[in-house]
Amino acid sequence: MISLSTHVLDTGRGAPAAGVRVELVGPTNRATVEATTDDDGRARLAEELEPGEYRLVFHPPSPFFTRVELTVRLEEGHYHVPLLVSPYGCASYRGS
Prior knowledge:
Elements (H helix, E strand, L loop, with lengths): L1 E9 L4 E2 L4 E5 L5 E6 L5 E8 L2 E8 L8 E7 L2 E9 L4 E3 L4
Parallel strand pairs: 1-8
Antiparallel strand pairs: 1-2, 1-5, 3-4, 3-6, 6-7, 8-9
C-alpha cells in the first residue's frame, strides 16, 4: 500500500501556506488527484497508489515561483513530500 501527503510552508512569511493547489499526476500522465492545502499548509493526496513515478505539481503563493513540479518514485509505504517556498527560493525533501 502506498500513501502520499504534502506540506507547503511559506518561508518568506514564516507560516504554513494555506489554499495552495497541488496536483498529483500518475504514471499514465493523467491527473490522479487535485487537492488544496488546509490552514496548516497540509494536504493528504492519496491512500492507495500503485508503485511508479508520480509528479507533484504545486501552485505556490510566490511572485516568482508560480509552478513547482517534482517527480518522485513511490514504491511502498507512506511518503511525505514538503515544499518550502518564498519569493526568493524553493526546496523540497522526503519527509517522515
